[in-house]
Amino acid sequence: MNKKISRGRLAKILPGLKTNVSLAQHTTFRIGGPAKYFFAAKTTSDVIKAIRTAKKLKLPFFVLGQGSNLLVSDKGFNGLVVKIQNSKFKIQNSRLYAEAGISFSVLVYETGKRGLAGLEWAGGLPGTLGGAVRGNAGAFGGETKDAIASVKALDKNCRVINLNRGQCRFSYRSSIFKKRGWIILSVTMALQQGDKKKIQAIAREHMQQRRQRSPLEYPNAGSIFKNCDLRRAPKQTQKIFQEVIKTDPFPVIPAAAIIAAAGLKELRMGQAQISEKHPNFIINLGVVGAKDVTRLISLVKKRVKEKFGITLQEEIQRVGF
Fold first, then answer.
1. Residue where one domain finishes, among candidates 175, 210, 245
2. Which has the closest alpha carbon to 190: 211, 165, 160?
């Protein structure tokens, strides 16, 4: 990092800049040390300016949405955290144009009340649109990529680029944005006119299922591990889990079922604990350090590998480690 950067110089370029902001207050896990610099980008122009400034000054940066699916180090982040809050959207016919910082749940509600189908699978999904696109979030047989028409992003050279769905290279819980570190600015989605009451009912049902199955009464980051691709599991392990195999969007063994079968429900490290309600969640029981969570993750991986020959892959993103 360029040590000659001064707060005053950065604040002139980015009005509203803050220093030493606790990132625990900006993540759903309620874990994480301070950001050296913190900037809330309320418009797409703010996002572009902040990232271009960080690049020019050789200042490490990290783009933050609503802080779900994220584990921040106890040391925090020694650079600039850009919190994306650009949240404008408009709907024309069956097309949705939305900025990356808008809550995905808002879009599920707004499209549903207009009788537009395509996002109802995401009822109750936490996080921003940008985060969902970046990780190709999915649930209940649907994936974010299914509705994508195009994405506007900032590439590694800080150029604004437009990509169609094919160019986004979506895969299971991943995309070109995740792999290359490109920053999503806005998204265009192609939806379909449908039965308003049916669409809203599906979204409500999925929201209710999330509430029933997930330990939402505790701070958490959402799913810690990706579901296991059935093809990558040993044949004997496939037989063990044959009754819980589901399509997501290809045949998988749910990570929660694997962790439960390994006898790891309620396993605890300090104040971090595997949820009894949903074993693919780690819950924060009090004042948790990120080290407790990383130790717990490592232990789960080790036990699952030993018992079933499966290598669990993390879905959670680590920052500042």
1. 210
2. 165
Give the pLDDT confidence of 197-254 residue by residue, as tens digits: 999 999 999 999 999 999 999 999 999 999 999 999 999 999 999 999 998 778 999 9
Q: For residue range 102-123, what is the model confidence (pLDDT) as tens digits? A: 999 999 999 999 999 999 999 9
Choice among 73, 103, 105, 223 that is catalytic: 223
Are residues 93 and 203 both part of a single domain? yes
Euclidean distance between CA atoms 209 and 146, whole angstroms: 22
- Among 210, 231, 262, the domain boundary falls at 210
Same domain (yes/no): 315, 235: yes
Count of domains observed in the chain: 3
30 φ, ψ (degrees, to nearest 5): 60, 40
- For the question of residue 173 being annotated catalytic, the response is yes
In the set 68, 173, 186, 214, the catalytic residue is 173
Active site residue 223: yes
- Rounded Cα–Cα distance for residues 230 and 234 (Å): 9
Note whether 66 and 148 are same-domain residues: no
